[in-house]
Amino acid sequence: MGEEIKNSIDTDDVTETLDKCVKYYTLEEITAHNTSKDTWLIIHDKVYDVASFLEEHPGGEEVLLEQAGADATESFEDVGHSIDAREILVQYYIGELSLDDRGKNNSKDVCVTSSGESSSWSTWLIPAIAALAVGLVYRYYMLEHKSS
Ligand code: HEM
């Protein structure tokens, strides 16, 4: 294996080597790790082995056990975890959810993107209409003022 990495570096193919090192787990495999001694979680399509973190979790081990072997993305985000919490997460990373098992929640991301676009569109349109209205009122006022 050492030789394989050496060859890859020689050929400047480091990215490909890193990709090969990523382990993909199927939903079926992950679901089996659902006990207090063997606890895996999926958060944002990444797999974490949090068995050794259960007792340290400031929110208690029960909430983690409830999600054991399943996708905890929604509950993790609902709590509004801090940046510190997200940094802790990195220590327990063991791999990625298999590509075939992704996508069940992805429709949500699409919705967020499209609603994001429409909100940016309305952020400039409303001030533009307001500015136009103010301009018209000002003009009307000036004309009135001149004629009297
Ligand atoms: C391995 C993944 C997780 C890590 C590393 C983590 C880490 C943390 C940390 C560091 C805190 C302290 C507050 C903060 O810094 O945000 C916290 C609080 C908390 N977490 Fe987690 N957490 C994880 C997963 C979860 C999940 C899946 C749930 C929900 C089911 C959850 C529920 C809570 C709750 C309820 C609190 C207490 C919030 C409060 O008292 O204000 N956590 N977590």
Automatic annotation (TrEMBL):
The chain crosses the membrane at residues 121-141. This is Cytochrome b5. Belongs to the cytochrome b5 family. It holds the Pfam family Cyt-b5. It comes from the Eukaryota. Residues 22-98 form the Cytochrome b5 heme-binding domain. The keyword Transmembrane helix applies. One of its GO terms (molecular function) is heme binding. The gene is CYB5A. SMART domains: Cyt-b5 (SM01117). It is found in: Membrane. One of its GO terms (cellular component) is membrane. Its main location: membrane. Coiled coil: none annotated. The keyword Transport applies. Keywords: Electron transport, Heme, Iron, Membrane, Metal-binding, Transmembrane, Transmembrane helix, Transport. Signal peptide: none annotated.
